[in-house]
Amino acid sequence: MSSSEPKGDLGLIGLAVMGQNLILNAADHGFTVVAYNRTVSKVDHFLANEAKGKSIIGAHSLEDLVSKLKRPRKVMLLIKAGAPVDTTINHLVPLLDKGDIIIDGGNSHFPDTNRRYEELKAKGIYFVGSGVSGGEEGARYGPSLMPGGAEEAWPYIKNIFQSIAAKSDGEPCCDWVGPAGAGHYVKMVHNGIEYGDMQVICEAYDIMKRIGGFTDKEISEVFAKWNKGVLDSFLVEITRDILKVNDTDGTPLVEKILDTAGQKGTGKWTAINALDLGMPVTLIGEAVFSRCLSALKEERIRASTKLLGPEIPKDAVKDKQAFIDDLEQALYASKIISYAQGFMLIRQAGKDYGWKLNNPAIALMWRGGCIIRSIFLGEITKAYRADPDLENLLFDKFFTDALNKAQPGWRRSIGLATSYGVPTPAFSTALAFYDGYRSKRLPANLLQAQRDYFGAHTFRVLPEAANDHYKEGEDIHFDWTGHGGHVSATTYDA
Hints:
Strand content: 5-15%
Number of strands: 9
Strand order of the largest sheet: 3-2-1-4-5-6-7
CATH architecture of the largest domain: Orthogonal Bundle
């Protein structure tokens, strides 16, 4: 190859932490990366320091970047989601040819990815929206990558993506997800599950602290033990580590942190989408609302002086080991429910958006490299490999057995927390979903009667109640008051 010929396997725009680490990761795997940042001084600084001596080339303009890439040119964006992505794409497009590839690796909302996919498809450019998870460490040594969009691009980026991705039992935590915005959709659900995982862990911590009277060091030891069993996961591991850290005065640092949680919106996107698709993804919804409630700190301080609750005696827990064992089952069962709900949402999205989604690969992608990586994702992968069209994760024997075993301890933990006034929104909603899902009959019959009474919204009868007067499958309006009319509304669907 002559010196004038382009050498770049991948162009990457955006030299914040994730961008820099992904470039170094790709260079470690033998790829030549062309690095560009809008603030060009960052490029020079990166080349002179972290990138020194590696197969990384700097670019001082988008034209320079594109000229240094092999065809088809592959340009990845790791920049702030929203308008900056559109602006960068608009500047890139005139420099590219048909068949070139643009990859958005940021936290874009999937409707934006759908739109960009269609716009670029019309121009002959392949657009890929890829979820990237794993934080700074993951980007550097192996993230979870969730690419979707123009499938024509996959053969050209597959080797790069699967080489730099985390590995689980030798398999890369990266595969093709599906068309259009499917990659970013799956990343959105991943982030929603992350919200849920963090909330259930926080509830277990709160119960141990407030009811069990455990110190942070003791709670850390419990999480360390749990991390060797069914709860083995990244978030349990970091919780163990956080609770061990003392400040310079010897007191736990975590106790000095203001109890108001921030959020970037991806969990909220998941909850809103679940409502749009009519899927009961209750645990993620409660996790988002819990962060919202935490933000009302001043109000909560005032409420704490006015609203009564039970006192927690010092000896509330008689058998500490049984208490911990129950709590482990509550945490485990709630996590299973959260993942099952997440996959319910993904399944419905596939139907509603006409996406053929790769469920076994999605579970494998989350098995390593990402924030929600945990040991039982291996079991989820197995479940979907055995039956890619599995109706619900809870119908797989592994998870059916796990919940059947967990439910007594799960109920005891929630009962104890409720009796002592410790809030467990995620634990409780997970159990309520479990009990609702396993109920052959729910009180929605009364709800439909109410809707028909006040709004003539109609109802349908049970198959066994059908007769000449009430036919199965028919929308029926009943004159509940004896002086109503016979005109009904045509809005049966709740």
